Amino acid sequence: MFYRPEDGHGLPHNPFNAIITPRPIGWISSRDGDGVNNLAPYSFFNGVAYFPPQVMFASTGVKEDQDNTKDSMANIEETGEFCVNVVEFAARDAMNASSATLDKSVDEFAHAGLTAVECETINCARIEGAPAALECKLTKIVTLPGESNRVAFGEVTGIHLRDDCLRDGIFDVTTYRPLARLGYRDYSVVRELFSLQRPDD
Q: Taking every annotated instance into account, which residue ranges of this chain make up the domain Flavin reductase like (predicted)?
């Protein structure tokens, strides 16, 4: 099968997200200028550089109570700060609850039954007990082609690691089993690992 996206795929559901899998989930926390916390999961997320450490996430939709974007992007544009919380399997229901479209005045931490704690290097909340959290200062927002497609890049200024996720000096993802986003309404979970030696090592 071949199709041009501009012509449509002819399938019951769009296969695009199912092709680009698995995708890590950035559970993005932010705070608006009035101090209201926001929390939302984004699967167009990844790390993009080591030194200094940098991450990105893309927002691809709009809310009626925001100006052509979503709460996360509006908050980050206003304050220049955000935090990426790592999603573990045990938090799947809370993560899903935080994806609800709610009024911008609603604190998704409370809505999802999560406890917000203050970050160290930025004026933003993070999820208490998350396996890891990356405190970020905005470096750039890039507008992409299409309606309301925007990418936020941030430099990581502080990193929280949950103590039980460290084994022999290694951040061991099998201790918390990270969630990954697939296509449609599907997710996956990392339960096992294998290693490959690079040819140049």
A: 18-173
30 forms beta bridges with: 38
Q: Which residues of 61-96 are buried (b: 16+ CB within 10 A; e: fewer)?
A: eebeebeebbbbbbbbeebebbbbbbbbeebeebbe
What residues does 179 pair with on adjacent strands? 189
Asked, for residue 199, whether it belongs to a domain, the answer is no
pTM tops 0.90: yes
Is 201 within a domain?
no
Residue 127 counted as domain residue: yes
Total number of domains constituting the chain: 1
∠ CA(143), CA(148), CA(153), 5° rounding? 40
Residue 126 belongs to a domain with what CATH number?
2.30.110.10
Q: Which has the minimum average pLDDT: 30-39, 57-66, 153-162?
A: 57-66
